[in-house]
Write a structure and sequence with these properties.
The protein is an all-alpha fold and 228 residues long. It is built from eleven helices and no strands.
Length: 228
Amino acid sequence: MATALPTTIPTGTNIHPLPRPSLPRAVALALTDSAHSGDAWDAEEAMREITAAGQRDRLPMLAEQFATSLAAVDRAWLDDRLSLAWLAMGHSKSGDVATAWLSETARLLADIPQDIVSEAIDEAIKASDKGFLPSVGAIRKFADPLVAKRKRVAARLARLISGKPKPMEAIEPPVEVISIEEIRAMTIEFRRMGLAKGWITQAQIDEAFPSPTRGASDECENSGRPGE
């Protein structure tokens, strides 16, 4: 059944859009393609950036917020919004034409989130320099890219929280491995400190000094092993 177009401005209904969901700047940057090497979005790299910014704990709340924001527009709200546009800009005085326009336009816009369709209607009306009501295509020209962007953000947030969270150590930058040549170039004191700090291992020292040397003996004594 077609929705009847009102002959007066609708009252009692809030025609203002719902608030648009927002992201902390660090999270927004981490979710964009351009923030990653090669312009290809990488979930692990994004998680490292978000964790470094101290925003990791907010991801579940943000994912839920963006998933909810994809809900389709309230049909009563949309009918009132389009009715106002018709009363302001409609050129036909035929009730049948008005009712058909409202019914079809609302049907073809009904899948768009409320805040996005509201902005798209406004932009399409502003772009109509001859004062005619914008077509569905003109409205969707503004709306569809915004919907696609929001779906992409929602999908990436969902991906970040879908798996088992990695321990903090797993997302730290990898430790650079010290080469055998670098170990051989170290002083005995520096090798001893590296062994104590865990920067190098006794196995690396043994590989660097395969024959018994004073340097190797010193490290063995420091690690509690009998000197060779």
